[in-house]
Amino acid sequence: MRRQVDDEVHEDEIHEHDRGLSYDLPVLARRRMIRLMAGVGAGLVPLVGCTADDTSSPSASAAGSASSAECATIPEETAGPYPGDGSNGVNVLKESGVVRGDITRSFGDSAGGTAEGVPLTFTLTVVDAASGCGTPKRGAAVYVWHCDREGGYSLYTEGVADENYLRGVQETDERGQVTFTSVFPGCYPGRWPHIHFEVYGSLADATTATSITSTSQLALPKDVCDTVYATEGYESSVDNLDRLSLESDSVFRDGHDQQLAAVKGSVAEGYTATLTIAV
């Protein structure tokens, strides 16, 4: 019953807040034209994306597989209807406890739930696009949020509106990295499996919800999604994913090279995902 309610809520709210391709493409086109014009004006190289890569060493963390000729700022995307950053109702960023690495549990006095699902640990590496993706953004901050395995968003979706799990903020370290412990998100009607994030200039900016540097989304690869969704608790995601592709998704269809995470692992051991974010 809960799953059916969540799907109905998402279908209604996506229709209202996330208007699909006809709405998103003009916005994305304007954003990309602005970045292109800015690059030409500054004498920058053509915009071709930074990509996800192994983050086991400082050099890999800072630059991924991208050289200066391959560096581009992460595409700007919609925050969607469930940001929790004060732009659409509740603001979790000003709550004590939001700065954390493990986002599987809710925090605070009024929430006590834990998100269930296949373990997922993801590392985001924030780099300076102007340096050719070679300089880590130390001391920046990243706020992340995503749906649970049934497609519900804490703070918004009926049944989990009193929870605040699967949301958290961290300050980037000397490698420009933040790492979050979470669960693999489900696939709800109309959207490819994804994780939202906002980059801020500092932790102070993030926890006061001011001066967002970049808003974008991380996409998860299909083969991993297929494997995860064959497990218990993700049943509704199977049919939802079958109706979608990265090329048809309203956010990722205009290009997802810079947003598709590199994912390793297994259902038994859990998964790790990495993505380099140039800002």
Descriptive keywords:
279 residues, alpha+beta, five-stranded mixed beta sheet, four-stranded antiparallel beta sheet, 6 helices, 9 strands, disordered N terminus
What would you note in describing this structure?
This protein has 279 residues and is of the alpha+beta class. 23% of the residues lie in helices and 21% in strands. Strands 1, 2, 5, 8 and 9 form a five-stranded mixed sheet that branches. A four-stranded antiparallel sheet has the order 4-3-6-7. The termini are far apart.
Number of helical regions: 6
Largest sheet: 5 strands, mixed
Q: How many extended strands?
A: 9
- Mean model confidence by pLDDT: 82
- Give the overall shape, derived from the CA principal axes: globular
Distance between the termini: 42 Å
Query: Radius of gyration in whole Å, from Cα?
Result: 18 Å
- The low-pLDDT segments are 1-69
Task: Kindly estimate the percentage of residues that lie in beta strands according to DSSP.
Answer: 15-25%
Task: List SSEs in N-to-C order.
Answer: HHHEEEEEEHEHHEE
Helix content: 10-25%
